[in-house]
Amino acid sequence: MNDKNRIFLFDTTLRDGEQSPGVSLNVEEKLEIAQQLARLGVDVIEAGFPIASPGDFQAVKTIAQTVKGPIIAGLARANRADIERAWEALKYAENPRIHTFLATSDIHLKYKLQKTRSEMLAQAVDAVKYARQFCPDVEFSAEDATRSDLDFLAEVVAAVISAGATVVNLPDTVGYTVPEEFEKFMRTIIERIPNNEQVIFSVHCHDDLGLAVANSLSGLRAGARQVECTVNGIGERAGNASLEEIIMALYTKHAFFQKEVNIKYNEIYKTSRMVSNLTGMLIQSNKAIVGNNAFAHESGIHQDGVLKERTTYEIMSPELVGVHKNNLVLGKHSGRHAFKERLLELGYELSEAELQKAFALFKDLADKKKEISDDDIEALLKDQGRSV
Ligand code: KIV
Ligand code: ZN
User: Fold this and answer.
1) Residue 156: which of 172, 167, 140 has the closest Cα?
2) Is ipTM beyond 0.95?
3) Where does Mn(2+) bind (predicted)?
4) Mapping DSSP to helix (H, G, I), strand (E, B) and coil, where does residue 189 land?
5) Which residue's CA is the closest to the ligand 1 atom numbered 1?
6) CB of residue 49 inside a 6 A radius of ligand 1
7) Could you say which of 15, 53, 109, 135 would form a disulfide bridge with 46 (CB–CB 3.0 to 4.6 Å)?
């Protein structure tokens, strides 16, 4: 594999994803998701924002101590207290990364930070240098990059790289850009940086116009090598770029993008269900890749086509992403083994005692209902007080 074409997947479900209104995950839930993200094979897990709360600090620390394989990142504003707190939690990780950020747009500088551009520049450089004293891997994010003055942004990017940033992230914080525009924006900044191979450029797109995935893919075409995203696209406001959609776009259109990711595709569906169950954020039926209807064929013409040859109406196989469409229908004759298998596919790992109780409830329900759907199983587990 040509290393230049290797894309690093930075998952921020546990940080930006948790910033979805109404979502709050406890330490155990975060750890369970982080372990599943490691099984899926993401390169970086942003585990949280350690200074935000004692719970978030504990979650980042526990994940840093426990989850092996991916880089574990923690967010810090560009100040010393945040960076110290982030490091306190991250220092246990096999591969830690401090992720520090500061806004570069005039709107943010004037109204939110009340700082001049030169004050911002000095603060960003100081933060990166300080973070590097603790950690060899430091990411700097220029918040609201896409609404920033291009010359000033290029100056900040060059300065933070000289200060020691190993990754530079250019977020479309308010989901304001469109694909062609974003591709040009990323290309311009990357080209303006001398020795740009020594740093990894990253994209982080929000979905306010429903373009987060399309913009992220454009950023990768422009030369970004890290993409920040969340499972099911959860996150602030309309959310972040959806991890599963990015992965499957790169896979399905490999001939076009020619980019490689190192992912276990058949863990996608399970990860999606786990995140939905633990966050309580439902997945819309027509959601690409992981929605209930993503591989359903309703019309007679489509059904006929798929029965003759599935590629007539399926651009990827459901099995590839871990959706076992052809599973036996669960009903009153189904056994414990089939029930347990279905639970695993849905992201539920139950203890023996929990499984026994859930199976008894399932049998009761199966006496009343001919076919038991995935939603029925999840409702049943929720009644039992088990979200996952
Ligand atoms: O959207 C954003 O700008 C962010 C940064 C903190 C990376 O989430
Ligand atoms: Zn964000």
Assistant:
1) 140
2) yes
3) 16, 204, 206, 240
4) helix
5) 173
6) no
7) 15
